[in-house]
Design goal:
alpha+beta, four-stranded mixed β-sheet, 10 strands
Length: 411
């Protein structure tokens, strides 16, 4: 029985079932067989905070196996060689992956291509040379991408970025700093956003371009791995670019018009975070319901105490609402609508509802909810970070309000 009335195609349902089977075989099994490497931070990370070589091998293997199985590029546009199944497939599969795998089996991050590490609509305007030279490696999962937009002084207001690409002969020299670039410590290529016309950029009339840059380029240096949540390593990086040379074939899209490419990526990130939040929240809720049904206090299962069952009922209600919002906005986007307000609502509500749901699951478990073994703290850390990633809740509220006062009152 499904709680979702939206008609999902038989093909998509079958793919979802197949993705779950893939995750059991290629993700969960890896974590079970190599648990001390993948789930013990002392082995997962090197002293400099980067993933160890053996972990990187696992990540690459999952990407490549998923690409071969046909899941990795399921929502990558057909023009790039993907299945082109759109945002509804993207949402449904991401949600199912995280509901099954939870936070412990984190290699699931690499089952479906994400706009910030693999092929997506962001790359539709690659040059012919880039399509021949780089795209096949990305589509196969052999090579990995990252997305260099945020800077120390430019986060939510990405138009304020200061990295410059200065024209030199047929190409450009790029100099500047990037921060919060996910996976840059292990990526092969980085989509770097830089000012190419400072005056237009200052006036917010374009002037920003996107370039495909090998991370092995001279002058490209990952200076620091950013550690979060008390971890000894991480996947976020701070990067310095010093006169990095790029050629015309490395320009993505039109010169000075890269900001729209960046915003397309951020929009896809909002779909991803909405789906991931719902998936992790459902994973946590299921654990809490199971625990409350078995754990006894005062002679009865704690599920019979309203102080336990009512918060779980409220969490389930919010997760259901978030799930419906995500399915709806994915369908709107696939119909060709911009759905700016609806996408902002779905992402903001989903990540906040997920944070509350995971916290409720932790409370239900008592002290057990805080243990490393259970993994609820990992789920909480992930959904807490999602309240900031790809547009903070405050930025999304600002966007929603702007749309309302422009007359967009359809609800």
């Amino acid at each position: 029985m499904s709680a979702i009335a939206a008609d999902l195609s038989e093909e998509l349902t079958a793919i979802g079932d197949a993705v779950e089977a893939f995750c059991r075989a290629e993700v969960i099994q890896r974590h079970e067989q190599d648990h001390d490497l993948l789930n013990n931070a002392r082995n997962t990370y090197r002293e400099d905070g980067r993933f160890s070589d053996a972990v990187i091998d696992h990540i690459r293997a999952v990407r490549m196996a998923s690409a071969e199985a046909g899941f990795f590029n399921v929502s990558t546009p057909e023009s790039l060689g993907g299945s082109g199944m759109g945002m509804i497939a993207y949402y449904v599969l991401i949600e199912r992956v995280y509901r099954l795998c939870g936070p412990h089996n984190w290699l699931c991050d690499f089952v479906v291509s994400h706009w910030a590490f693999g092929p997506s609509a962001v790359l539709e305007k690659l040059t012919n040379q880039a399509r021949e030279q780089v795209l096949p490696q990305l589509m196969s999962g052999e090579a990995m991408l990252c997305f260099g937009m945020s800077e120390p002084g430019a986060g939510s207001d990405a138009a304020m970025l200061k990295t410059r690409a200065v024209k030199s002969g047929d190409g450009w020299h790029i100099s500047g700093r990037k921060i919060w670039t996910t996976h840059v410590p292990i990526a092969d290529y980085c989509v770097v956003f830089a000012q190419t016309d400072p005056q237009r950029a200052a006036n917010k009339q374009g002037g920003i371009s996107a370039f495909l840059v090998p991370t092995s380029s001279q002058g490209f240096q990952v200076e620091n791995v950013i550690r979060m949540h008390g971890e000894i390593g991480g996947m976020e990086g701070e990067t310095a670019l010093d006169e990095v040379w790029v050629e015309p074939w490395q320009l993505i899209g039109e010169l000075h018009e890269g900001f729209q490419i960046g915003m397309l990526g951020v929009s896809m990130g909002r779909i991803y975070n909405s789906a991931r939040a719902v998936g992790l929240a459902r994973w946590a809720l299921e654990k809490a319901v199971d625990y409350a049904s078995q754990r006894e206090a005062f002679g009865v299962p704690i599920a019979q105490h309203q102080g336990v069952s009512f918060p779980l009922a409220e969490a389930a209600t919010e997760i259901h609402a978030a799930h419906l919002m995500g399915i709806n906005v994915a369908q709107l986007l696939d119909r060709g609508e911009r759905a700016v307000k609806e996408l902002s609502m779905a992402k903001s509500y989903s990540v906040q509802a997920a944070k509350r749901a995971v916290d409720t699951a932790m409370q239900t478990h008592g002290a057990m909810g805080l243990t490393n073994e259970l993994g609820l703290h990992e789920a909480y850390n992930r959904v807490r970070a999602a309240n900031i990633a790809d547009g903070s809740n405050e930025i999304l509220a600002r966007t929603i309000a702007q749309r309302l006062f422009k007359g967009d009152l359809e609800l």
